[in-house]
């Protein structure tokens, strides 16, 4: 899973329903809209996201029944890039 995909999944999991459409996700996460659309398509193909159309917008949701595992994997991916504290002494 790419870090950008993990950020998207965590955002969708936590966001209010009215913010779960591509333009808003793009703006909130500062991800290029075209790139976001490709990532959303990839996440849908991997059965991590589902989408529905309402009021001329396409909204995204995590696939029901997979939310906990999906978010756990996404959070693990995001935590991989965080620097770890080291006990080494720099001289």
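Q: What amino acid sequence fits the structure above?
A:
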């Amino acid at each position: 899973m790419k870090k950008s995909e993990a950020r998207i999944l965590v955002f969708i999991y936590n966001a209010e329903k009215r913010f779960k459409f591509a333009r808003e996700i793009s703006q909130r996460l500062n991800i290029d809209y075209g790139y976001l659309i490709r990532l959303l398509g990839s996440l849908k193909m991997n059965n991590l996201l589902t989408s529905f159309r309402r009021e001329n917008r396409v909204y995204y949701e995590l696939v029901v029944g997979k939310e906990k595992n999906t978010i756990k994997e996404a959070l693990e991916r995001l935590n991989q890039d965080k620097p770890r504290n080291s006990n080494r002494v720099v001289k």
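Q: And what stands out in the fold?
A: The helical segments are 3-14, 22-29, 33-45, 67-80.
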